[in-house]
Amino acid sequence: MSLSPEVETQATDTLAMSPEEKATIDTILAENAGKPGATMLVLTLVQENVGYISPPMQAYIAEALDVPLSHLYGVLTFYSFFRMAPIGRHKISICLGTACYVRGGPMLIEKFQQVLGIGMDQTTEDGRFTLEVCRCVGACSQAPVVMIDDDILGRVNPSDVAKLLRKYK
Amino acid sequence: MVYRAHILISGDAACIAKGARDVEAALWEAVQELNLKDEVQILEVSSLGHSDQGPEIVIYPDGTDYVNLTPEDAKFIIEEHLLKGRPVERLTYREPPSLPLPPPSEKEVRVVLENVGKIDPENIEDYIAMDGYMALGKVLGEMTPEEVIEELKISGLRGRGGAGFPTWLKWTLARNAPGDMKYVICNGDEGDPGAFMNRSVLEGDPHSVIEGMAIAAYAIGASQGYFYVRAEYPIAIQTLRAAIKQARDYGLLGEHIFGADFSFDLEVRMGAGAFVCGEETALMQSIEGARGMPRTRPPYPATAGLWGNPTNINNVETYANVPKIIHKGGSWFASMGTDKSKGTKTFAIAGKVERTGLIEVPLGMTIREIVYDVGGGVLGGKKFKAVQTGGPMGGCIPEQYLDLPVDYEHLKEVGSMMGSGGFVVMDEDTCMVDIARFFMEFTQDESCGKCVPCRVGTRRMLEILNRICAGEGRPGDIETLEELAVYIRDGSLCGLGQGAPNPVLSTLQYFRDEYEAHIYDKTCPAKVCKGLIEYKINPEACIGCTRCARNCPVNAIEGKPKQTHVIDADICIRCGVCKQVCPVDAVYVE
Ligand SMILES: Cc1cc2nc3c(=O)[nH]c(=O)nc-3n(C[C@H](O)[C@H](O)[C@H](O)COP(=O)(O)O)c2cc1C
Ligand code: FES
């Protein structure tokens, strides 16, 4: 459910890697480039530690791993977890797994969109929140579930949404 | 003045409400009494982060965080921590366990979940204290690989990841496959969007899975193993990484384990949000660093798996059962369950049921027992309508089969399947067409696109279902769905496409009248489908509290405080928020 790759690429073409990002990527490459199946491994680790994989990073990683950029791009676009652009400071993922769907997930989607004034897969103008849907975070007994960053919030009531967000600056 | 220690006490409203002031007074008193007032400074600050567990203090320089304090605790901490220099473990803040596991109901039998919630997953010694790694020691010291496999055969253990393939047979095939390099893989992708059994085991008892994998590696002759865990489970990934490191430090992974001629090591690989990667061949593609698309079988992974080498792949729960079987014997395991389905199975009961959560029951328990005895019955005493098992490839089982034993064969007979253990209860307020549509949306989204019938077919089916739910169903839609279902099932390579039509077929089989009501009468009997319902406010009941109006995402509700509110049907998007937030149940659906 991410934005289509074209849209994201356009928005980030100008994004150069920051020195910190480059350093993180270099460490990941140094530790993993030689391992079998390195493409996926490096991409998941960069996503985990940097938060996104911009086009310049893609080119850099492809070169370092000695794989065609097209291959890397193909892998990147296959998996919905990878992002090509940075997201807001806080990521809100509304669960739409079966349990959450049955217990009111769709309702929360409407409510969050209203409170934040953005649609799904969008980021608020101040860069504070990005809103997205996820499938089952494994807390179904607490349905409906919303994940904000690493916090799992269970039994979320639509009327509490605005209050919930206050904590995340 | 230079202080030796600083105590910060949280003075936020929640902590004060729970007695922070008294705790603070006790701190002062104890500091005076013990003559520490020149060494220790007490400062009231705003929140320290865990107000839900207040009163809370943090002591510097070491930064120990104490929560849920009483005045007596405060005094004790001053004596122990500041006078004697011994932090008080029992009062320190601990990360809440991510999935609180309620005590089992009487009918449960915990094998896989035995340690979950009881031991500290970060501490290998806790696991060892529960007889952990005894089975591996026994296997390496006393058993040949053939004997290990024989024990599994006696146990009757079948794969817990979906299809229920006999584990001993899978291991035998991998053992007999020629090859110098062999692998074991643990499938921790847990893609079923309503299930979290594997996650609980990985987070709560990671060593049981590691031990099971090591035993499998010994049995088939592998030296390298991989965990494949979905990126959505960051805690499980971290727990596993830590557990693997500890096992290495203890010599339970690595070279010459237990001094035997057996070496085995493990690595964690992450998925990245593709459901199809739970399918074994796609999973291996993904580990290899490619797009996770399934390939034709045979060759099966047992002969040509990871990088073309013989590979054994099992589910998390399958592996977690193995140490117990070796330790207590195959016949002990076989004494539980039914004729063909042995042992226990974990289920994630969710949906409209009183006690949701993780359970483990002997196979063969009836749906009725699971829903009513273990799950406490349908939420709010409503009427049971169906239970969905098997995830997006499974089906819905109606009321008439409440007494069906839950095992591999019986679930299949009624058009569903075991899957990994999702168990979603649905009541009279659940629309079966909407549920079918929900699953089709999921599979359509997750289809990898390799097979045309799956890629295009699921989309066509979804379009029809969307139309039906929007109130624009046409005569002939049901028949088209049935026809497409056959094409997709027969024309797809992997289980995703083959199983994708299942939710539609099973709901059509048992709830055809609901489809017909949508199409011909333009009504949704469960009052769910947005195109066919209208939200209204009962003027008799409305107390004019304005809560619905304030919460409506599209401002469709008019009304002044203390006056009856009205919903404008033209603006209303039928999200149901108003019904949910109304304190007096004045909102109803028509
Ligand atoms: C679309 C699809 C998704 C699957 N997802 C999972 C999964 O999340 N976890 C799992 O253990 N098996 C999953 N499987 C089954 C695996 O292909 C494989 O059969 C299983 O991991 C074998 O382990 P077992 O013998 O221990 O059950 C899936 C299969 C298909 C077709
Ligand atoms: S369905 Fe939402 S957490 Fe599982």
Main sheet record of chain B:
5 strands, mixed
Mean pLDDT of chain A: 86
Q: What strand line-up does the widest sheet of chain A have?
A: 2-1-3-4
Regions with little confidence, pLDDT below 50 for 5+ residues of chain A: 1-14
What is the global morphology of chain A? elongated
* Mean of all residue-level pLDDT scores of chain B: 91
- The count of domains of chain B is 5
CATH topology value of the largest domain in chain A:
Glutaredoxin
**CATH architecture assignment of the largest domain in chain A:** 3-Layer(aba) Sandwich
In brief:
Chain A folds into two domains: 74 residues; 77 residues, Glutaredoxin. Chain A is built from eight helices and four strands; from the N terminus they run αααααβααβββα.
Task: Give a structural overview.
The complex is a heterodimer of chains A (169) and B (590). Chain A folds into 2 domains: 5-78; 90-166, 3-Layer(aba) Sandwich (Glutaredoxin). By secondary structure, chain A is of the alpha+beta class. In chain A, helix 2 runs antiparallel to helix 3 and helix 4 (55-65) crosses helix 5. Chain A has 8 helices and 4 strands. Chain B has 5 domains: 5-94, Glutaredoxin (3-Layer(aba) Sandwich); 124-334, Rossmann fold; 344-427, Ubiquitin-like (UB roll) (Roll); 432-521, de novo design (two linked rop proteins), CATH 1.20.1440.230; 534-589, Alpha-Beta Plaits (2-Layer Sandwich), CATH 3.30.70. Chain B has helices at residues 13-17, 20-33, 71-83, 124-129, 134-142, 145-155, 167-176, 197-204, 206-220, 234-249, 280-287, 316-328, 330-334, 367-374, 408-413, 432-446, 452-469, 477-491, 495-499, 502-521, 547-551, 577-581; strands spanning 5-10, 40-45, 57-60, 64-66, 183-188, 224-229, 265-270, 311-315, 344-351, 357-362, 384-389, 395-398, 422-427, 535-537, 557-558, 566-567, 587-589. Chain B has a 5-stranded mixed beta sheet with strand order 10-9-13-11-12. Chains A and B meet through helix 3, helix 5, helix 6 and helix 7 of A and strand 9, strand 13, helix 16, helix 21 and helix 22 of B. Bound molecules: flavin mononucleotide and FE2/S2 (inorganic) cluster.
